[in-house]
Amino acid sequence: MSQLSLIFKGMAMGMAEVVPGVSGGTIAFITGIYARLIAAIKSVDLELIQMVFKGKIADAWKKIDGNFLFFLVGGMALGIGIGVFAITWLLEHHPLLIWGFFFGLILASCYVVAKDIKQWNAAAIVAILIGTGLVYYVTIAVPATGNTALWFVFVSGAIAISALLLPGLSGSFILLLMGMYTYIIPKVKDILSGDLSGIMVIIVFALGALTGMLSFSRVLTWAFKNYQNITLAFLTGLMIGSLNKVWPWQQVLSTRLNSHQEESVAFSKSVLPSTFENLGSNFLYGTDPQTISVIVCMVGGCALILVLFFLGKKTS
Length: 316
Hints:
Layout: H1 3-18, H2 24-30, H3 34-42, H4 46-53, H5 57-63, H6 66-93, H7 95-114, H8 122-140, H9 150-164, H10 171-177, H11 181-192, H12 199-226, H13 228-246, E1 250-257, E2 263-270, H14 273-276, H15 291-315
Antiparallel strand pairs: 1-2
């Protein structure tokens, strides 16, 4: 797998994680690097620490698939930097088009993951229904009020990174539900802009993320090893359930002030384009359904995923 390809895949994962409702795990899955990523993360253990302390750096690097992680994580960092500025701007100025694109991404991803399910038995169907119901409930849940205490920042990082590893569950959206999205993301943006006042918050969040990642990767490895078919069905359900969150036509039910005292969407619900255009007023989204443009973006998102999937099969 070429280094440039890994960087681009990492960038796609990083940009996806900035957007509430879109999962970096989905991008990893459809580009053919999901299993390798989970295996690399799981390899971080006591044996690895002992290798490092004994000076066996080369062996440790090989154990964690260091070259793979280096270029992938580098790409993710670049993608997050781009996403914080570019994608957040698009979400503010062209929300219907960008959400239409993301809807297409996830819709095609459902197909990509589901096609690997070998046996469509009762257990697989139940797993899909549970996954779909779980994430659908998450998408209609009312976001909580955030807690800026460092212990809660740590917990937020652990939970959000666990969601990153699951296709269909967005770490950013989990942060949004916990009331921490408008606290953490601006801190990242400030640091990237040169303001280091929130560096302690980000360090604690990163430590929480590291803890969650190392723990949850082992759970996923066990699930794939012992119940691969059911696990794939459950992951497919997670992505199907998340489609409600990225549906472009949203009626905003309530707003709130973010950390910069700017009005932002707090809670919304999915509606049909015909209902959308008859709304009296609708913060951020407006009332112009832009149906043709949105459908074009949906098709573009589907096409991109299918291209990435077939490229991923070639390079895996």
